[in-house]
Amino acid sequence: MIQDQNDRADKEARRDELLKEVSEIGRPDAYVLHEVIRLEGDEELRRHSLALFLSAFAAGLSIALSLIVPGVLKSRLPEADWAKVVTTMGYSVGFLVVVLGRQQLFTENTVTPILPLLHDRSIKTALRVVRLWLIVLCGNILGTLAIATVVAHAGAFEPPVLKAFAEISHDAIAHGFWSTFVKGVFAGWMIALMVWFLPATGSAAPFVILLMTWLVALCGLAHIVAGSVEAFYLLVTSAASLEDYGLRFFLPTLLGNTIGGVTLVAVLNYGQVAPQVEETKEVEGERTD
């Protein structure tokens, strides 16, 4: 117990040291970014299950702003090509709240806990990653179901806005399995890229989040959490079935987001720093001996 606390304190000190280095360098190398995210991932893997779930549930609620804001904008803007550019900017609001608020989002966790797993390829760490994914995904999905039900039936929005919600949400289930899967891969890749270089952005972080998530919306890509708000909105208003949600949206998007984040970002970016990581591990092993 005492040893675990000491290890945790050492890792927190190391992370703080790296973050300070990032702020001083301005443009840190890939290894420094890797270490910052790896230490954050290690901390997430150690978090209590209830804390993870509550944070993930809160993220599921907050991400509803990625439907609410575009819906309100759409209901007030004319039908024009430029209106979509403005409307999709509202999609970023939910992500700004979630990411800056440090709430747990499944797609962020396709990178953060994977780096500790690549660093320590053990069954114990793999099980910790699976545990984290299951808790966060369940919290996210339950949160989106709850907020979609409130948005649809609480009477907070007028009919034109509700109509805009339905029109926006229809895109979540409008495509076939493979099309949605590919859209999910691209979305997972873009969100994971955002997570990868976010530690180096400093005060520009909100603008980076705004840009990357706006592009996800503008390109019509599929995000498992934000899209669940849309799909659940259709479900609770009887405009879609549970099968539509599960087979046309949830399964292909989940697979796509996971593959996009894990393989295209976590694994490939780890590959470029792997020699330095192994060298550091050897040095640390020699010191231990």
Name some characteristics of this structure:
single chain; mainly alpha; globular; 289 residues
Descriptive overview:
- By secondary structure, the protein is mostly helical.
- It has a single domain (2-283), classed as Glycerol uptake facilitator protein (Up-down Bundle).
- Helix content is 78%, strand content 0%.
- The chain contains 13 helices and no strands.
- It has helices spanning 2-25, 30-46, 49-62, 65-76, 81-89, 92-100, 114-119, 123-153, 159-169, 177-197, 205-218, 226-236, 242-288.
- Helix 4 (65-76) packs antiparallel against helix 5.
- The longest helix has 47 residues, at 242-288.
- The two termini are 22 Å apart.
- Mean pLDDT is 88; it is low at 1-6.
What's this model, at a glance?
By secondary structure, this protein is mainly α. 78% of the residues lie in helices and 0% in strands.
What is this structure's SSE topology?
Blueprint: H1 2-25, H2 30-46, H3 49-62, H4 65-76, H5 81-89, H6 92-100, H7 114-119, H8 123-153, H9 159-169, H10 177-197, H11 205-218, H12 226-236, H13 242-288
Regarding CATH, which class?
A: Mainly Alpha
By DSSP, the count of extended strands is: 0
Rg over alpha carbons = 20 Å
Superfamily at the CATH H level? Glycerol uptake facilitator protein
Series of secondary-structure elements, N-terminal to C-terminal:
HHHHHHHHHHHHH
Number of helices: 13
Report the sheet with the most strands, covering strand number, pairing sense and barrel closure.
Answer: none
Q: End-to-end distance, in Å?
A: 22 Å
Query: Roughly what fraction of the amino acids lie in strands?
Result: under 5%
| CATH architecture classification | Up-down Bundle
What would the CATH topology be?
Glycerol uptake facilitator protein
Please bin the fraction of helical residues.
Answer: over 70%
Count of individual domains: 1
Structural class: mainly alpha
Q: Overall 3D geometry?
A: globular
Detail the poorly predicted runs.
1-6
- pLDDT average, as an integer? 88
